[in-house]
Specification:
Elements (H helix, E strand, L loop, with lengths): L2 E9 L8 E6 L2 H10 L9 E6 L32 H4 L3 E12 L5 E17 L6 E7 L7 H22 L14 H11 L4 H8 L4 H20 L18
Helix pairs in contact: 3-4, 3-6, 4-6
Length: 246
């Protein structure tokens, strides 16, 4: 088992390997993380782990609120995540490589990162200025019949795109060719579908590529059937990733 210690960036979203994640970093703990990452030489990866929040707040409370307006808000890197942050997060995360970290004049950061590999969290340390995690690297096992499943998923995904575009009364967002490598297909489709965070997390932590593709095939067929009966379905642009406000 290969273990690594990484800075931990909790979000209310799931990052997949190969997908791009823009971040607007303004909380002091995450700003400290970015300042530390900037110390890494430019020819080395500036890595941190992005983990989806199971129960907690992406942005820590910073002022008194309900039900007790006099309550003092929590401070520190684990604020909003309870006494044991590990229980607050999903166990499988994605390592992100920050290609761009740009500090603004006000001390906040604009970050552009790309998901690389999956990891399983083993422990979370809140003793420093930001959360860090001990994690084990998860290898991507193709599983059985991944190639054939990928072809089926791509066909269903194209139908899903067409139905979604029709429901929104607009043309398809992109005409670019889709990849055919099963692992890449599985992550691209998982990121592009309009799914809630628990479902996306389930896809991220699938035991192998084939299992993820089988799950996606069922989801695509179900979602396409739903869209067929909902001609005015609001949805976010499939080609635009979410920008976290941190």
């Amino acid at each position: 088992m290969t273990t690594v210690r990484l800075p931990l960036f909790p979000l209310n979203t799931v990052l997949f390997p190969g997908l791009v994640l823009p971040l607007n970093v303004f909380e002091e703990g995450y700003r400290a993380m970015m300042r530390e990452l900037l110390k890494t030489p430019e020819d080395e990866p500036r890595r941190f782990a992005v983990v989806a929040i199971r129960d907690g707040y992406e942005v820590a409370p910073s002022s008194p609120g309900l039900p007790d307006p006099t309550a003092v808000p929590e401070r520190g890197p684990s604020a909003g995540f309870g006494a044991d942050p590990l229980r607050t997060f999903h166990k499988v995360a994605c390592v992100a490589d920050a290609a761009t970290i740009r500090e603004r004049a006000d001390g906040t950061f604009e970050v552009l990162a790309t998901g690389t590999t999956r990891v399983r969290l083993l422990s979370v340390d809140a003793s420093g200025p930001y959360l860090t995690a001990e994690a084990e690297t998860l290898e991507e096992d193709p599983g059985d019949e991944a190639g054939a499943l990928a072809e089926g998923v791509l066909r269903s995904f194209r139908q899903y795109q067409k139905r979604l575009a029709g429901a929104r009364e607009r043309t398809l967002a992109t005409g670019a060719d889709l990849p055919d490598e099963p692992g890449v297909v599985s992550y691209l489709v998982a990121a592009a579908m309009m799914l809630d965070t628990p479902t996306k997390q389930r896809l991220l932590q699938a035991p192998d590529t084939a299992s993820r593709l089988r799950d996606e095939l069922k989801l695509l067929r179900t979602e396409t059937a739903i869209i067929r009966h909902l001609p005015s379905l609001p949805a976010a642009d499939l080609t635009r990733g979410p920008t976290s406000q941190n």
